[in-house]
Specification:
Elements lengths: L1 H11 L5 E5 L1 H7 L6 E2 L10 E8 L17 E4 L6 H10 L4 E5 L25 E4 L1 H13 L11 E5 L8 E7 L4 H16 L5 E7 L18 E2 L4 E2 L11 H17 L1 H14 L6 H11 L4 H10 L1 E3 L12 E3 H13 L6 E4 L2 E2 L6 H11 L8 H6 L3 H68 L1
Parallel strand pairs: 3-4, 4-5, 5-6, 8-9
Antiparallel strand pairs: 1-7, 2-6, 3-7, 8-14, 10-11, 12-13, 14-15
Helix pairs in contact: 5-7, 5-11, 6-7, 6-9, 7-8
The structure holds 2-acetamido-2-deoxy-beta-D-glucopyranose (4 copies).
């Protein structure tokens, strides 16, 4: 009965993010949908659903080692007293698969709200979510009861869905910063997966940390040295009073974008060497050119890509006069950044869903794989990796069905044997009776005949 109930829930609530399944009273109080936000660290099983029992952390704030799981997979932790990462790490150590943290208030959880990493998020590999104080308190009431209730139907049981947008073609936007070491780490980690996915339908776009300061930010002064195209594209000054300027970063961003566009196979090597060798922003141009030569990339093609991207604002022709020009590459990047909302650096947007959690090459690969409507065969391991609670449930269900089927088969077989035996015995008895009858009739017949004979004589 419970199994059937679960199947119905999976189908019915496929669109929810967090769904309370039991107890019924809690479902009534919390409503059909509970909003949640994802942490910006840990490993988020994108494209998957997790189901599990929920219990309250002990201690409530999760700031010191938690008592081991009481049989639940998910744990509720109160906000405050220590960082999110500490809480989730403690939950992970206590054997939980998901941490649910309550906010201080009931403000709506903006989609771009992030539970920030404190710098140690890499050590966390379970996902964690954030809910409002109201939702948290209601859930806590029921999750605390568990300790004196043995009845499973009274325990809080929920389903959490980690959405991806499934498509045939995957659009990946990689948000990077020329000066940020972590951007190069992510690119380096992802390079092997880029090769694996090479023949798949994945469309990559690079965006760099640039902003427009031409009119919007009047109260914020940015030196034109840090901008190109009359403050259309600006970048933060990399060295304060030093000789380098934001322009150096913008020029490098254009160069990297062009290399990726024309030499995607060399791009990862370029990035690797650039990160190691080009440390001074004022020397990016000469340093980058050297690597381009080393990697046998056609410098002409990269320069042409750059020059072609500057266009006159009126007639959209190529122009050298930057005071009245826009840049087609950067314009596109600004648009994508705006579309994605507040995203950090480095970060990744897959099919318009912002990747949350610890950003690793493997993690990006996982999200890409899970965003395919029909994941390619090279993704299969990746997809199995994330099969946690949900699929265990399915496996158990299949096992149960198999077991019941076998039982029924054995039962039918035994029934058949018994039936056969009875039929045999019955028919033996019946024939015996019939034979006996026939024999006696035969005897009677002959005796009668004899008598008739005798009579006739
Ligand atoms: C924070 O710590 C104090 C003192 O240990 C405690 O009284 C309080 O309950 C804690 N806060 C939470 C949210 O658990
Ligand atoms: C690739 O993705 C970018 C950004 O999402 C988009 O502008 C572009 O049109 C896409 N290209 C193709 C061929 O779909
Ligand atoms: C400022 O930049 C935006 C976006 O690039 C552009 O649409 C707008 O025309 C610019 N305004 C001026 C005054 O240059
Ligand atoms: C560049 O364009 C601006 C604005 O149209 C103009 O005032 C300036 O003279 C031009 N500079 C050159 C070198 O053509």
């Amino acid at each position: 009965m419970q199994i059937i109930f679960l199947i119905i829930c999976i189908v019915t609530y496929a669109n929810c993010k967090l769904k309370v399944i039991r107890p019924a009273e809690l479902v009534d109080r919390m409503g059909s949908k509970v909003n949640m936000a994802l942490a910006n660290f840990g490993q988020i099983p994108f494209g998957h659903r997790l189901m599990g029992y929920v219990e309250m952390a002990d201690p409530y704030d999760g700031c010191s080692a938690l008592k081991p799981s009481y049989g639940s997979q998910f744990v509720l932790i109160e906000r405050g007293n220590c960082t999110f990462v500490t809480k989730v790490k403690n939950a992970q150590n206590a054997g939980y698969m998901l941490a649910i943290i309550g906010n201080h208030n009931d403000e709506p959880l903006e989609s771009d709200f992030v539970m920030a990493d404190d710098g140690h998020g890499y050590s966390v590999n379970i996902p964690s979510i954030f809910i409002t104080l109201r939702d948290f308190n209601i859930m806590k009431e029921y999750a605390t009861r568990k300790f004196y209730s043995e009845n499973q139907d009274d325990q809080v049981f929920i389903l959490v869905k980690f959405d991806v947008e499934k498509r045939d073609q995957i659009d990946v936007v990689l948000s990077l910063d020329v000066k940020d070491g972590d951007s190069y780490r992510v690119i380096d980690e992802f390079s092997q997966f880029y090769k694996i996915l090479k023949n798949e339908n994945v469309n990559y776009t690079l965006v760099y940390q640039i902003f427009n300061a031409n009119e919007t930010q009047t109260d914020y002064y940015i030196d034109t040295d840090n901008c190109i195209c009359s403050r259309r594209y600006c970048s933060m000054d990399p060295d304060g009073d030093g000789i380098a300027s934001g322009r150096n970063l913008i020029e490098e961003a254009i160069r990297q974008t062009c290399i990726f566009k024309h030499y995607p196979d060399n791009f990862f090597d370029y990035m690797d060497q650039f990160n190691l060798q080009c440390t001074k922003a004022q020397a990016y141009s000469t340093c980058g050119s050297k690597i381009i030569t080393n990697l046998k990339i056609q410098a002409d093609e990269i320069n042409k890509c750059r020059d072609d991207s500057f266009r006159d604002t009126i007639n959209h022709e190529r122009t050298q006069n930057l005071s009245n020009a826009y840049n087609s590459i950067l314009e596109h990047q600004l648009l994508l950044i705006e579309k994605a909302g507040m995203i950090g650096v480095p970060s990744v947007v897959v099919n318009s869903i912002v990747y949350k959690g610890q950003l690793t090459g493997n993690g990006i690969f996982g999200e890409i794989c899970n965003s395919f409507i029909y994941p390619p065969s090279i993704c299969m391991n990746e997809i199995d990796d994330y099969d946690t609670l949900e699929n265990n449930g399915y496996h158990q269900l299949i096992l149960v069905i198999l077991f019941i089927s076998i039982l029924i088969a054995i039962f039918i077989f035994i029934l058949y044997l018994l039936f056969k035996k009875f039929v045999k015995r019955d028919s033996v008895e019946v024939t015996q009776v019939q034979v006996n009858e026939m024999v006696s009739q035969y005897i009677k017949f002959y005796e009668g005949k004899d008598q008739q004979k005798q009579n006739s004589f």
